[in-house]
Amino acid sequence: MILSGDAGDSGRLTDLVAVGALTSLVPRQVLDAVIATHGCRERRVRKLPAHVVVYLLIALCLYPDDDYEEVAEKLTGMLALVPGARWQAPTRGAITQARQRLGTEPVKEVFQQVARPAATESTPGAWLHGQRVMAIDGFVLDLPDTEANVAEFGRDSAGGYETAFPQARVVAISECASHAIVAADVAGCWAGEQTLAFSLYRRLTEEMLLTADRGFYSFPAWNEARHSGAHLLWRVQAGLRPYWLRDLADGSWLAVITKPAGLRQSQKDRLRAAARQGRDLDPEHAVIVRVVDYTVPDRKGEHIRLITSILDPAEVTAEELARCYHDRWEAETGIDQLKTHLRGPGRILRSRTPEPAYQEIWAYLLTHWALCTLICTAATTAGLDPDRIKFLGTVRIVRRSVTDRAAFPPEPPDASWTRALHQVAHRRNVNPRRRHRSYPRAVKRSRRSSYRERRPSDKGIRYAGPPTVALLPTPSATQRGP
Predict the structure, then answer these.
(1) Which of the residues 24, 108, 267, 305 could staple to 413 if both were Cys, CB 3.0 to 4.6 A apart?
(2) Bridge partners of 131?
């Protein structure tokens, strides 16, 4: 075994470092290509070359309760078993310097290169008539309370109070079936979700159906997302009043939405007249959408209005669209997996300055994507719904694959991957079928929040089946938009 050499040597001791079952999803070849592109390859022999630092960042996400040196020991400790090697795990100072040398952009680009939807044609719940169901949503992550982090990310003051920790805002597009985040953007907490979402719409593809909550709709955002070729299914605010064109047989209706600003009333009238006559419209000024109004009478019963770019009821019915929109909540489940089960409940990130903080966030997104892809692949192979696989159980399986010194010398990545697939889909790691239930939005701990404190009377409600969709009547002549 060669214990030293140039950066390009193939016999370096650190070439044995891997992240267990996740190595096949984040392969060394991708890391080397990204590192070469960004010019951050080390110029002399180091204990922590750039590709090892990326794997170390993933390990730090897998072991959020351990400090730098403990995680480094878990990741590289097996190197001490190499005959003739005198390996010692790197110190905290060496890890900090290595992270600074690597920077943020290589980790971000690794995520962008490998993060892809995980579901196949046989994955349950992944498709709606040939369209891959996706969702966009945002969340915040707490950071250490340092002056540098406050200056870069800020403290959110929503609800009339200032948060105790600075927060980073993340907006992500995820696959509903697998919860895998395939595109994301990160900024300070003052950045708006709509603003961050604009940079993500170009990552959509024609096979996708993007669902979004009412906070993401705007006329420019709709057009930007549609330019990608993907279809859209968005909830809109109650104040949006699309101009009625005609009713459709399935209970939905066609409408035209005009640009809200910069058009005179006479211009809007001409655009609406052109839409009624079936003439083509300039999408920069007006678009035709299909509207689905419905309630869920056996839940809260509130009025929900959806607009979609799928105009033909023969492709997808209004009831199918209404049921599909409820899958948007799978994005919330994925966010909960990242924030609560992977990072840890109430835990802040490690990084005390902005550059490492961005780097750490991208590492969490990369790690979560890899875990979700592992779960989805194992579930699809076993003929299961990915929702039934235990996320935390899978995290533990991956942790064991990283620290399994009984497998030394390290197995080929394919062997570790195959064994992990079997363990993830094993009956011990499979939940019972998901029950139909809902919970009130309330906080458990007493703190300032936009939600009230949880009461003893707040109990989960179980239902015998999925929510009932009740389509609402289409607008009458007197209710049509102005």
Answers:
(1) 24
(2) 128
Nearest to 300 by CA among 434, 436, 435, 440: 440
Q: What is the pLDDT of residue 473?
A: 86
Mean pLDDT, rounded, for 403-423: 81
How do residues 126-154 score in pLDDT, each as one tens digit?
A: 999 999 999 999 999 999 999 999 999 99
Contacts 24+ apart (CB under 8 A), 436-441: 436/462, 436/463, 436/464, 436/465, 436/466, 436/467, 437/461, 437/462, 437/463, 438/299, 438/463
Distance CA 56, CA 76 (A): 9
Q: Flag the least confident range among 128-132, 225-229, 418-422, 445-449.
A: 445-449
The token duo for 6 is 């140039």
For residues 3 and 383, what is the distance between their CA atoms, to the nearest angstrom? 45
For residues 172 and 187, is the Cβ–Cβ distance under 8 A? no
Distance of CA 173 to CAs 115, 136, 154, 330, Å?
Answer: 11, 4, 24, 11
Output the pTM of the full model. 0.88
2 confidence band (pLDDT: 50, 70, 90): very low
Task: Return d(Cα 404, Cα 94) in angstroms, integer.
Answer: 24
Radius of gyration (Cα) for the chain, nearest Å?
25
Amino acid at 196: L
Strands 304-308 and 208-212: unpaired
Q: Are 395 and 62 within 8 A, CB to CB?
A: yes
Amino acid at 330: E
pLDDT at position 461 over 90 = no
> What residues form DSSP beta bridges with 185?
171
> Which residue's structure tokens are 């209005």?
305
Compute the C-alpha angle 200/205/208, nearest 5°: 100
